[in-house]
Specification:
heterodimer; A: alpha+beta; Rossmann fold; Elongation Factor Tu (Ef-tu), domain 3; six-stranded mixed sheet; six-stranded antiparallel barrel; 27 helices; elongated; B: alpha+beta; five-stranded mixed sheet; flat
Chain lengths: 779, 416
């Protein structure tokens, strides 16, 4: 209504205006008003006649009423109001941008790429009754989806262009004027609104109209571009190169304005432009720039997952199906979007089972300074996973710090603090392969303060390697050798390989008696903990010098007994590795505890790593992160440092996520399938094996990587070895007893399910471990 | 708190006491003293709406002394403020009898308390303790691990969690310094939060505790900050730092820290030292399943009934949370229990529910006893305790469970 004022009007204002008008129509005019109308209407009419316009009495009255009897304003208003409203809005915006439009057009025409058809304006508007059809107009203003991202210009995507072409052909039969806009498109153009040609005075605008009008029609006939589209910021890259010079920054500012309607419009325009570009363009197929851009996209893995999950309606599916058809054509390579390929992962896993090498992750446990990291450094060096050159470099650096013997450990201990202090602090993860097996090493810290990290590592492993210093058995038995064995068992590890280390420096060196003594002691402890005798293997070795780690020891001299009686550590590991994941586990809902949240690189700003406990995941899947409850999309998967399409239970992998803020992800959170997310609980009943006396008390609760605090709120029952009830509400659970206790978490809830393995610690020692029996109410 | 005046009859405990709270912790004492139905007289600001004869209304804010009959108490641990709601019990020219008012007790303003039930032994002990001017130990503690730091203020009677800093740290990774960078950022955040809490002009001892090297690294960080010279006052803080070991950054690890010798020497808190000693003894007895240690309300009552908590080593440990019961009879029950133990010649320790020892006691039902002779199967005699402990839906509310009252909101409260 007031064109002079509302350059910046948004939709809301326009709606409000409508309501005002409606209201006025309903209200009755007073006699005084009538009098005024009678006086002023002829004056206004005269003015309008001068301008060569017609207006009904009613319109004039309305205008007068609205402008409070101001004849001048009413006339101005009426002059403008003679055009249908939608055009008015567009005209307003266009006015602000027409300069840019012109510039864009000029530049387009200079390149000679714009090939306007010669449309007769009336043909364009055959099917469009839009100045009289309010529903048409409504459809134009109402946003299509809740948050449809801006699509990319399809000029760079010939696949979609073809799709659009197909649609256009269909549309032709349904009386829609096919869109033949010019190729001179820029993001500015997208902003300019269709304009009534009759009112138009600028020839440039007349040229533009054809590309704008059919849009709306088009949009209704065809599904909106449902394909996952790239985030807006990549858009400029895909624009036609000749238009790069246009002031896109400004245009983008405008085009990403608050109005949803503007966005939907521009989307439709994009679709149209690009398709017509290809249709009219004699150069079919991608331009050289397109090819380059596409290549760039591939390398950067640009994609957008939000779109994938948003569109679930039938139209979207149809569009996707069409898109997939296009994939086969040689000119349309696959788009680097996170779109789930819908792989049948369990089947792929089953099919590939025969060809696949078994994979195994083992956690290296043992007391502090028993040589875990050094032994692993040696293993990596001798299997060729780490080059001698690196070791030499570490040796030089370590010598400078006066710690030459730590050089091998530095392969695992990469943290600056770890190297300074010569103590492993956190789990180190390293891959290596032999001819038979793919291994992942999880090197756990031995220091008692870092037992929480060790629990995290043990929860990700398939088997354990216990490193025992043959010369310091006692310290370990009192300390972390014992605790680690208990925790390995508590984390569900079945097989254990005991590396009796530092035998070269025992007295006498490589004394068989020393080895046997250690073996006896450790076997006793292991069997008492619950490891079956056949799951225990012993390997005498020396990590620092590499004897019997990968290379067998000479079969003569002091080490003769070793060569004859024992395998090397590597052989023993290969023997212990197995790939026996049940198919049911792989088909179950996805559960993956996050071990680490990190920045995977420039292309993958947010990555998480961990072990898939159950289920499977593939690129394009959306997952829920508990306890935050946020969804994320998987844009890439890495296993053993290689990009893969899918991953299944028991694999250690890195997922590159998108569509989630980093603060929703913490180590210890659980990624789960959207269909069946793991509940977040505040309290649970756990059946524990007490390692120390337990009273109602505050404890640290560990579930894999999750480290939170809670209290044992109640001792419910003690149980005997058969799980039979011994006593209800005991006043204390003594060391060695099993019991059901209720644990209430202090810091909010945690994602927990029945069967999860929980470790309870207090004052720096493990007091109990067990499995969740029941979980309490959700958060 | 200073006692200004007291007129308490030794015989029946009737009478009143006038006190002057001087520091925030005195509000905690007042919270433990004032019970529903007591008469409380304190200065108040009341909005008075006057209507003149002409019909014009004027609103006045008047300072007046009000006497209210207490109905509800609300203690804000973070701000150490006590709000006491009640009905006006003494009319004056501004307010009518029976109208409602909420008194906010203020520092440096007298209040007078008259107990509805008379001053019982526990109330008198609390009063005595609150006016004790000698021990005013206070220290700040940052209990941390990589990625998590809890900043607490520890006073003689309270441990107040002032801020929790939680940062997601990427784990170490070959060829990436993200971990180190994030760790420095974590120290920075913790340091900034700490500075917002403490008063550098009058630095209290600062205790840093963590597993591993986090605390000493953080101490080093503070030293570096002090040396960089941006903040001169930091120099005074540096010598006051003590580094200790804790098993984790979670608050229940504080008891371990506070009982370590490095800390007790700094705190010189004999009350707490004795309490800790008794708690440790109790836990030791429990671990050995010694029948001389019992916990839980009914068990302890049964033991006291049999005279087992008497002369020669009988100790009753009871949290003052029990005396704060809104129900007068419940309070009376515990006061009677305390009196009985005293009569028998046993030792009674009233532990602050907001202090570490009190929190350990909390898990045990706020009450525990060390008996002079073993009694087997007290629990079976008392029959079924209040049922439903294994009912997971019946969750205790956050305050009761966590020990630190108001901890659940702690995070929001202080992050400005």
């Amino acid at each position: 209504m007031h064109r002079m004022k509302n350059i910046e009007y948004d939709e809301d204002d326009l709606y409000a205006e409508d309501e005002e008008v409606d209201g006025e129509e309903e209200q009755a005019y007073t006699d005084e008003d009538r009098q005024n109308f009678d006086d002023l209407t002829p004056v206004v009419r005269a003015e309008l006649d001068e301008a060569g316009l017609q207006a009904s009495d009613r319109e004039i009255e309305e205008a007068l009423y609205y402008y409070y009897w101001d004849v001048g304003k009413s006339v101005v208003h009426l002059k403008h109001a003679r055009t249908p409203r939608p055009q008015q809005q567009q005209a307003k915006k266009e006015k602000a941008k027409s300069k840019f439009d012109q510039a864009a057009e000029r530049s387009a025409s200079k390149t000679g790429r714009s090939s306007y058809p010669s449309p007769s304006a009336s043909a364009w508007f055959d099917g469009i009754l839009w100045s009289t059809v309010p529903s048409e107009w409504e459809g134009y203003l109402i946003p299509v989806g809740p948050q449809i991202p801006r699509p990319k210009l399809l000029g760079g995507s010939s696949k979609l262009a073809k799709l659009a072409e197909e649609r256009r052909k269909k549309a032709a039969s349904s009386q829609t004027a096919p869109s033949v806009p010019d190729t001179g498109l820029s993001s500015l153009d997208r902003l300019s609104k269709p304009k009534d040609p009759k009112e138009n005075v600028l020839p440039q605008h007349a040229k533009q109209e054809p590309k704008k009008y059919p849009i709306r029609k088009k949009r209704e006939l065809t599904p909106p571009p449902k394909e996952p589209s790239p985030p807006p910021e990549v858009e400029p890259k895909e624009e036609l190169p000749d238009l790069r010079a246009s002031p896109t920054a400004f245009a983008r500012t405008l085009s990403t304005g608050p109005s949803q309607a503007a966005r939907t419009r521009s989307m439709a325009l994009d679709e149209l432009f690009s398709s017509s570009t290809n249709e009219e363009n004699p150069f079919k197929g991608p331009s050289p720039d397109d090819t380059i851009l596409r290549a760039q996209q591939h390398s950067k893995g640009l994609n957008n997952g939000k779109a994938t999950k948003q569109f679930a309606n039938g139209l979207a599916k149809k569009a996707e199906a069409l898109k997939l058809d296009q994939t086969s054509s040689p000119t349309t390579p696959t788009q680097p979007k996170i779109k789930s390929k819908g792989l049948d992962v369990p089947k792929l896993w089953k099919d590939g089972k025969a060809k696949r090498k078994p994979a195994a992750a083992f956690v290296v446990i043992g007391h502090v300074d028993h040589g875990k990291s050094t032994l692993m450094g040696r293993l990596l060096l001798d299997t060729g996973a780490v080059s001698q050159r690196d070791i030499d470099k570490y040796k030089k650096q370590a010598t400078e710090l006066g710690k030459a013997s730590f050089a091998l450990a530095w392969v695992m201990d990469t943290g600056s603090e770890e190297r300074e202090r010569g103590v492993t602090v956190d789990i180190a993860q390293h891959h290596f392969s032999t001819d038979k097996v793919d291994f992942t090493i999880l090197d756990a810290p031995g220091h008692r303060d870092f037992v929480p990290n060790m629990i995290g590592g043990a929860s990700m492993a398939d088997l354990a390697v216990l490193v025992v210093d043959a010369n310091q058995l006692e310290s370990g038995m009192k300390g972390q050798t014992r605790e680690h064995i208990l925790l390995a068992k508590a984390c569900g590890l079945k097989r254990i390989v005991v590396a009796v280390n530092k035998l070269d420096s025992s007295s006498p060196p490589w004394g068989e008696a020393t080895f046997e003594q250690v073996k006896d002691e450790v076997t006793k402890l292991l069997t008492a903990t619950g490891f079956a005798a056949e799951d225990i293997a012993f390997v005498p070795c020396s990590g620092l010098n590499g004897q019997n780690v990968v290379t067998p020891v000479p079969s003569n001299g002091k080490t003769g007994w070793v060569a004859s009686s024992s395998r090397t550590l590597l052989q023993e590991l290969e023997r212990s590795a197995s790939d026996n994941v049940a198919e049911a586990t792989i088909k179950a809902s996805l559960r993956m505890q996050i071990a680490d949240v990190f920045r995977g690189g420039i292309t993958n700003p947010l990555s998480v790593s961990g072990r898939i406990a159950t289920g499977n995941v593939q690129v394009g899947d959306s997952v829920i992160v508990q306890p935050s409850g946020e969804t994320a999309a998987v844009r890439g998967i890495e296993a053993s440092s290689d990009g893969v399409e899918w991953a299944v239970a028991s694999q250690l992998c890195t997922l590159h996520l998108t569509d989630i803020e980093p603060q929703h992800l913490r180590a210890g959170d659980v990624l789960c399938s959207t269909s069946k997310p793991v509940p977040v609980v505040k309290s649970f009943v756990v059946q524990i094996q007490a390692l120390e006396s337990i009273l109602p008390q505050g404890v640290d609760v560990h579930v894999g990587r999750l480290h939170t605090s809670g209290i044992i709120a109640a001792l419910i029952t003690t149980l005997d070895a058969q799980g039979e009830l011994l006593k209800k509400k005991p006043r204390v659970v003594k060391a060695g007893q099993s019991a059901n206790v209720k644990v209430v978490l202090s810091d909010g809830g945690a994602p927990l399910e029945v069967g999860d393995r929980v470790v309870l610690r207090a004052n720096g020692s493990t007091v109990a471990a067990g499995k969740v029996e029941r979980t309490g109410s959700c958060r | 708190m200073r006692l200004i005046k007291q007129q308490i009859e030794k015989k029946d405990g009737s009478g009143s006491a006038t006190m002057l709270p001087e520091e925030p912790e005195d509000m905690w004492h007042a919270y433990n003293l004032i019970r529903p139905n007591d008469l409380l007289r304190a200065s108040a600001i009341r909005k008075i709406v006057k209507e003149s004869a002409a019909g014009s209304r004027s609103v006045d804010r008047v300072h007046t002394n009000l006497t209210i009959r207490v109905t509800k108490l609300d203690f804000d641990t973070q701000a150490s403020q006590l709000h006491v709601s009640g009905r006006v019990a003494e009319e004056n020219k501004h307010v009518t009898l029976g109208s409602y008012h909420t008194l906010d007790l203020e520092l440096q303003r007298n209040f007078t308390l008259e107990k509805a039930e008379g001053w019982d032994s526990v109330a008198l002990d609390t009063l005595k303790e609150s006016i004790n001017q000698t021990a005013k130990a206070q220290l700040w503690a940052v209990i941390m691990q990589e990625g998590l730091a809890n900043i607490c203020l520890i006073t003689e009677h309270q441990t107040i969690l002032r801020q929790k800093v939680e940062v997601s740290l990427p784990k170490k990774r070959a060829g990436s310094s993200d971990h180190d960078k994030a760790l420095q950022k974590f120290y920075q955040t913790t340091f900034d939060s700490l500075l917002r809490q403490i008063d550098l002009a009058d630095p209290k001892p600062l205790l840093l505790a963590s597993p591993g090297f986090t605390a000493s690294s953080f101490q080093q960080y503070i030293k570096t900050q002090a040396a960089s010279g941006a903040n001169k006052q930091l120099h005074q803080l540096v010598p006051k730092i003590t580094v200790a070991h804790s098993a984790s950054a979670h608050l229940h690890s504080l008891s371990e820290v506070l009982s370590s010798s490095a800390v007790t020497s700094k705190l010189s808190d004999t009350k707490f030292a004795r309490e800790t000693q008794l708690m440790d003894r109790f836990f030791d007895l429990m671990r050995n399943d010694d029948a001389r240690a019992w916990y839980g309300p009914k068990e302890c009552e049964a033991a006291v009934e049999r005279g087992a908590v008497g002369k020669g080593g009988g100790v009753l440990l009871i949290s003052n949370a029990l005396f704060r019961s809104q129900d007068i009879n419940t309070r009376r029950r515990w006061v009677q229990l305390v009196d009985e133990v005293k009569d028998q010649g046993g030792e009674v320790r009233v532990l602050s529910s907001m202090h570490e020892s009190g929190k350990r006691l909390e898990g045990l039902g706020d009450i525990a006893a060390i008996l002079t002779y073993p009694i087997e199967n007290v629990d079976e005699e008392v029959g079924d305790m209040d049922g439903g402990i294994d009912d997971l839906e019946d969750e205790p509310d956050g305050t009761a469970v966590n020990g630190i009252e108001g901890r659940s909101e702690a995070h929001e409260d202080i992050e400005i």
